């Protein structure tokens, strides 16, 4: 029921009259409040989007940096590997050259010519050759004589000292 402006008293109670301008003002305030709320939500959404974009950009930058760092490490390792391979190849070439030189020096013809020319050796004839059977222990007596001589020297030295003390 609409209360008119001049009918604000009913019996012993006073009714507060509603004015049409007051409802319009409340509706206007509610609309303004809703508008402010929409703007606030929109700003929050934009902030979230910006923050997300910054996080994604930071993640991409970090991953890019890590990728570049790993690539440089791989590149340096490849350079080191290439250097080592070239060193291995040169050492292998050197070893092969030394093997060839060793085969030349170790050949019997080379040994024979060096012995004849540099050392003045001659090939022995059958008359100059001696054949011995070295399968037995021919030096057993020599070993026993050496140990006995050492024992005699000790006893002789001891005997000399004892004689000097007497």
From TrEMBL:
This is Cell division protein FtsL. Keywords: Cell cycle, Cell division, Membrane, Transmembrane, Transmembrane helix. It comes from Clostridium paraputrificum. The chain crosses the membrane at residues 52-69. Residues 1-50 are annotated as: Disordered. Residues 35-50 have a biased composition (Basic residues). It comes from the Bacteria. Residues 19-34 have a biased composition (Basic and acidic residues). One of its GO terms (biological process) is cell division. The lineage of its organism: Bacteria, Bacillati, Bacillota, Clostridia, Eubacteriales.
């Amino acid at each position: 029921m609409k209360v008119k402006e001049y009918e604000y008293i009913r019996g012993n109670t006073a009714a507060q009259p509603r004015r049409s301008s007051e409802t319009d003002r409340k509706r206007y305030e509610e609309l303004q409040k809703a508008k402010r709320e929409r703007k606030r939500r929109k700003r929050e959404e934009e902030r979230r989007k910006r923050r997300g974009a910054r996080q994604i950009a930071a993640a991409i930058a970090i991953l890019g940096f890590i990728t570049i760092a790993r690539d440089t490490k791989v590149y340096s390792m490849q350079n080191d590997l290439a250097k080592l391979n070239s060193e291995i190849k040169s050492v292998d070439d050197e070893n092969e050259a030394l093997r060839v030189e060793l085969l030349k020096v170790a050949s019997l013809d080379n040994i024979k010519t060096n012995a004849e020319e540099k050392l003045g050796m001659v090939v022995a004839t059958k008359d100059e050759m001696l054949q011995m059977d070295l399968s037995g222990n021919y030096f057993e007596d020599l070993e026993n004589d050496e140990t006995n001589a050492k024992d005699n020297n000790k006893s002789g030295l001891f005997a000399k000292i004892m004689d000097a003390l007497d």
